[in-house]
Automatic annotation (TrEMBL):
<dbReference type="GO" id="GO:0046657">
    <property type="term" value="P:folic acid catabolic process"/>
</dbReference>
<dbReference type="InterPro" id="IPR017439">
    <property type="entry name" value="Amidohydrolase"/>
</dbReference>
<dbReference type="InterPro" id="IPR002933">
    <property type="entry name" value="Peptidase_M20"/>
</dbReference>
<dbReference type="Pfam" id="PF01546">
    <property type="entry name" value="Peptidase_M20"/>
</dbReference>
<dbReference type="InterPro" id="IPR052030">
    <property type="entry name" value="Peptidase_M20/M20A_hydrolases"/>
</dbReference>
<dbReference type="Pfam" id="PF07687">
    <property type="entry name" value="M20_dimer"/>
</dbReference>
<dbReference type="GO" id="GO:0005737">
    <property type="term" value="C:cytoplasm"/>
</dbReference>
<comment type="similarity">
    <text>Belongs to the peptidase M20A family.</text>
</comment>
<feature type="domain" description="Peptidase M20 dimerisation">
    <location>
        <begin position="213"/>
        <end position="304"/>
    </location>
</feature>
<dbReference type="GO" id="GO:0071713">
    <property type="term" value="F:para-aminobenzoyl-glutamate hydrolase activity"/>
</dbReference>
<protein>
    <recommendedName>
        <fullName>Peptidase M20 domain-containing protein 2</fullName>
    </recommendedName>
</protein>
<dbReference type="InterPro" id="IPR011650">
    <property type="entry name" value="Peptidase_M20_dimer"/>
</dbReference>
<dbReference type="InterPro" id="IPR036264">
    <property type="entry name" value="Bact_exopeptidase_dim_dom"/>
</dbReference>
<dbReference type="InterPro" id="IPR017144">
    <property type="entry name" value="Xaa-Arg_dipeptidase"/>
</dbReference>
<dbReference type="GO" id="GO:0016805">
    <property type="term" value="F:dipeptidase activity"/>
</dbReference>
């Protein structure tokens, strides 16, 4: 029997059972490569190149795992990645686009012309979580992105293909939005599509990622002796408490995929003094850009109303770190990814198998609203092992992680090559992106 303080797994058990039912009836992953000349030879070349680089990539992943660095502090990690790129002949640069721990390297064909030939970016992350290291597996992401870049460029160098491949090392995804800083600095200008992977407990071609904003709130009241003259005070903690309770009441009317979490991180110093200030830290998450805007407005209304009820004033500071948008998955590129993984013996799930309510946030969403992009998931841990836990941190240095690095290096390399040499694929990716709506810049969406 479980003790009453341990949450029941009944809901997750039911979800996992429904997922298994859907998996059993899901359509098989397509294995057709397409019909442009030389594709089989190019894919075989990527496979061989990935095998060649695999040992180095696993060593890199394990090294990053053993030396975790948090957001914007990834100096050693950036150095290791830069050194590996330079060993393979690339002019890798650190501190690009105004971010000290960002890394960039490029390969372009001899006759490359911007606007005429495609440019594809492959992304690595390498920041860790405070206290539990690489419990989100960014060391694996780093190795896979780097491997995809090395494998694709090695094959393209020996072909007649015209295009450019850009490697971007993007810091500070955890709790921050490093990619948005890079976007604002022009890192993705001129890029036609972007690809990356994320480790998980399932292989998934397209997964839901919700948008996220953060809000810091300070209520300003008037202090007073809580016993002799409480009527002369205005209690800032009352306003924070009212807002916190109102958030709980509002959740009944929120869409099931929306999330709202808040803490009161300051509420006074002594019980005998009416608190003059109270502070809250709030995360607002939603599945779509327009619903994220709507939920943000509702949160603003609650904060204003709480201050009014308590007779205090309030200051709000939205997006201390830039907001992250929901991921706009590109179905054309995702289907090509699923094909690469089927040939590796994996069976990536299509969109809609994993419930939308089981979703986190990523700053790749900001990239995916500017250009076609994919952010598939690669299984490195058993079902039931959650991200941001000690168990997943161990999985990020396991044999399964090493297998995931090989398969993902091959997959990313093959999708990059395809996007450059197969015009029909890139056209389909662009059409899919356009069908989802106009490009969205996070800095413009939340500029007011």
């Amino acid at each position: 029997m479980t003790d009453k303080y341990t949450p029941s797994t009944a809901y997750l058990d039911q979800i996992n059972a429904r997922v298994e039912e859907k998996i059993a009836t899901a359509s098989p992953v397509p294995t057709e490569l397409g019909h442009y000349s030389g594709q089989e030879e190019l894919w075989d070349g990527v496979d061989k190149a990935a095998q060649q680089f695999h040992e180095e990539l696993v060593e890199l992943a394990l090294d990053l795992h053993a030396h975790p660095e948090t957001a914007f502090e990834e100096f050693r990690s950036a150095e290791q990645i830069t050194n590996l790129l330079r060993r393979h002949g690339f002019d890798a640069r650190k501190g690009v686009h105004g971010v000290d721990t960002a890394v960039r390297a490029e390969w372009a064909s001899p006759d490359f012309t911007s606007g005429e030939h495609p440019t594809i970016a492959v992304i690595s992350e390498y920041d860790a979580l405070p206290g539990i290291g690489h419990a989100c597996g960014h060391n694996v992401i780093a190795a896979c992105g780097l491997g995809g870049f090395l494998a694709a460029t090695q094959v393209l160098k020996d072909s007649d293909a015209q295009g450019k491949v850009v490697f971007l090392g993007t810091p500070a995804e955890e709790g921050h939005s490093g990619k948005e800083y890079l976007i604002q600095a022009g890192a993705f200008d001129g890029i036609d599509a972007a690809v990356m992977i994320h480790p998980f407990t399932y292989d998934i071609g397209s997964h839901v990622w919700v948008g996220r904003r953060n809000l810091e709130v300070t209520f300003h009241g008037k202090p007073a002796h809580a016993s002799s003259e409480p009527f002369m005070g205005r209690n800032a903690l009352d306003a924070a408490s009212l807002a916190y309770q109102a958030f709980g009441l509002m959740r009944q009317q929120m869409p099931p995929s929306d999330r709202l979490h808040a803490i009161i991180n300051e509420g006074g110093e002594r019980a005998s003094i009416i608190p003059e200030t109270a502070q809250m830290n709030i995360y607002v998450r939603s599945l779509y850009t327009d619903t994220l805007v709507d939920l943000s407005q509702r949160v603003d209304d609650i904060i204003t109303g709480a201050a009014l009820m308590a007779g205090v004033t309030v200051t709000t500071n939205w997006d201390v770190h830039p907001a992250t948008l929901p991921v706009r998955n590109n179905h054309a590129l995702a289907e090509r990814w699923r094909t690469t993984q089927a040939r590796r013996g994996r069976d990536p799930l299509p969109a809609g198998i994993i419930p939308e309510t089981l979703a986190a946030s990523t700053d790749f969403g900001n990239v995916s609203h500017l250009i076609p992009g994919i952010h598939p998931m690669v299984k490195i841990a058993p079902v039931g092992v959650a991200l941001h836990t000690g168990d997943f941190e161990q999985a990020a240095a396991s044999d399964a992680a090493a297998e995931g690095i090989l398969d993902s290096t091959i997959g990313l390399g093959q999708v990059i090559v395809d996007a450059i040499v197969d015009p029909a694929l890139l056209d389909a990716a662009r059409a899919d992106f356009a069908a989802a709506g106009e490009p969205v810049r996070c800095s413009e969406l939340f500029s007011t």
